[in-house]
Design goal:
This protein is α+β, with helices and mostly antiparallel strands. Helices cover about 40% and strands about 20% of the residues. Helix 2 runs antiparallel to helix 3.
């Protein structure tokens, strides 16, 4: 089982150069399939679509834009124009947050293996969740109003142990439904064999 990021594996192109290839036809662009090493030896990782990153950045911009407006307008009107510089603090957080959202988005990936589903995420603290198909009790596809506006859906996996519940956010609705159907089918087949 692989741990770490595609950048550490060295088999594929650099994660900083979207669309690069290692000569075997596998790409390392965010939101596309990534295969490391020899065929069949490593899982085939799928990234999240760029719509999730656009949605999160838009939400961050809306909220911090409103905070910047309030932080500049209220002190500027009440205490004087020099105090309006407080608006720069939320704008600095906005610039930093947009970069961090990009790093977080690139860290999310999932892979379907023969007996389980792998979900990997995290930049500083990497987490890799392994969900055996035979332990899945419920697979849900959810999509709130903002997600629907951006054409996204999330897949929520429920197992007998709450600690192994997992979510794959920001998928295309067609991929989310395909994944739900496949995981349900594999879960039923594996649980029947228990």
């Amino acid at each position: 089982m692989e741990t770490g990021s595609p950048r550490e594996a060295g088999a594929a192109g650099s994660a900083d150069a979207p669309g690069t290839t290692d000569g075997t036809g596998t790409t390392d662009a965010p939101g596309t399939v990534w295969a490391a090493g020899t065929a069949g030896a490593e899982p085939v990782w799928n990234g999240l679509p760029p719509g999730l990153l656009r949605m999160r950045r838009m939400l961050l911009s809306v909220w911090l834009g409103a905070v910047a407006l309030a932080a500049g307008l209220l002190p500027g009107l009440l205490a004087g124009p020099a105090w309006a510089t407080f608006a720069l603090l939320p704008l600095a957080v906005l610039a930093w947050g947009r970069r961090m959202l990009g790093r977080n988005w690139r860290s999310w990936r999932y892979a379907e293996r023969a007996d389980d589903l792998l979900i990997s995420r995290g930049v500083l603290w990497r987490e890799e969740t392994v969900v055996p198909y035979g332990r899945m009790q419920l697979v849900e596809v959810t999509s709130g109003p903002v997600e629907r506006h951006f054409g996204l859906a999330s897949v929520q996996l429920h197992t007998a142990a709450a600690a192994t519940d997992a979510t794959i956010p920001g998928l295309d609705p067609a991929e989310a439904e395909r994944l739900r159907d496949r995981l349900t089918e594999l879960g039923e087949a594996r649980s029947a064999g228990l």
